[in-house]
């Protein structure tokens, strides 16, 4: 081996991680996986209760996806989409266009959720420039939005913990209050009234900024990273109606909620909403390889057409855009959705029922303030005082404590602050759901009681 100098035993600088805590030790090393189970170097098994960060759909080492990637390997691992193309990329785009809501017909590939969002942002901006409405440059977003960690995506985000530090590097945006039914700023607890207020606030802001705005970006139905905040029914439709009425684009970031998590292929489908731009990532390859897509309507796409000299081209691309191995995995994942009728069995079938029962049981615990979910995606918020909705002190890291206890019970989770995320692969079995909820309940009780 080539060696020039001494290096740390593990030189990896881990994401979202206070490295001082590791003090030379690595985090748990995962050596293998099968179905919904992860295995560490000692052979200890853990149920993958967070889908390896909200990505895995059909389980690990699914034979159909494994084979598709191996077959593609036998042809070519990577070529480019800059000036050339490949059959798998075209076929996947066709299938996505067939599946996606309403008028979304064009597919621009990239390699992570954040890049899918950057692309949507630039497309929306350039679209209005090309339409001659050059006064438009603003974006509306929800107050606790999360759209990824690159600077454009962070500008569209609203989570102070991740974003505030970079304030001066960001472009300014219009913050629309997140429709949060558990933690809201209004007096009283009449849900109908609270929902009306949120509906009204969004309407006011959209109206006010309509003339100068490019678009409104939203995580449909569930704001994931903000703590699995489930929007009231009709909110997405409401935003769609308003953005249409006031002539701005609707950008749906389905990086987390897409590919069946909430029970339909896309969360927008629940409210028959067709966005102008749609961001996909995470589960697109079944959780196997980095791939993302930004989908656009024919109306948006056609604004970019013209003679080369008109400079209407969308000048954007990444080296690994539309990587063939990733496209092969994504095609195989869609094939598995069809063959295994994943949506029917997971979400409208007994699994959703069992998941919902598990959530309702957790809701009865003394320190569970709120449970929030759709389909097989959700979380439980831990509180010090249930009546007062009083949070634990930040330094106590109550969520972290709970997931470390769950790990002892053989279940792998990752919290969002005080919210314990429960988001298994759609392939999870009823027995595995029982394991997930039993371990979570035990861990919460052990830490909070
Ligand atoms: C995870 C996530 C992203 C970012 O995706 P990466 O692949 O991590 O860049 C963007 N939007 C939402 C809603 C997400 O949950």
List keywords for this structure.
449 residues, alpha/beta, Aspartate Aminotransferase, domain 1, Aspartate Aminotransferase, domain 2, 2 domains, seven-stranded mixed sheet, binds pyridoxal-5'-phosphate
What secondary-structure arrangement, pairings included, does this model have?
Layout: E1 30-34, E2 37-40, E3 45-48, H1 51-54, H2 63-73, H3 87-99, E4 104-110, H4 113-130, E5 138-142, H5 151-155, H6 160-163, E6 174-176, H7 191-209, E7 213-218, E8 222-223, E9 229-230, H8 235-245, E10 249-253, E11 277-280, E12 292-297, H9 298-303, H10 324-339, H11 342-346, H12 350-363, E13 368-374, E14 377-382, H13 398-408, E15 411-412, E16 415-416, E17 419-422, H14 430-448
Parallel strand pairs: 3-15, 5-6, 5-7, 7-10, 10-11
Antiparallel strand pairs: 1-2, 2-3, 4-12, 8-9, 11-12, 13-14, 14-17, 16-17
The structure holds pyridoxal-5'-phosphate.
Q: What is the straight-line distance between the termini?
A: 53 Å
Largest sheet: 7 strands, mixed
| Percent helix range | 25-40%
Name of the CATH architecture of the largest domain? 3-Layer(aba) Sandwich
So what's the CATH class of the largest domain?
A: Alpha Beta
The residue ranges in which pLDDT falls below 50 over 5 or more consecutive positions are none
**CATH homology superfamily of the largest domain:** Type I PLP-dependent aspartate aminotransferase-like (Major domain)
How many helices in DSSP terms?
Answer: 14
Rg over alpha carbons: 22 Å
> Taking strands numbered 1, 2, ... along the chain, how are they ordered across the largest sheet?
4-12-11-10-7-5-6
**Which molecules are bound besides the chains?**
pyridoxal-5'-phosphate
Quote the CATH topology of the largest domain: Aspartate Aminotransferase, domain 2
In total, the number of strands is: 17
Structural class: alpha/beta
Residue share in β-strands: 15-25%
Average pLDDT metric:
96
Please give the domain count. Answer: 2
User: Which shape, going by the Cα principal axes?
Assistant: globular
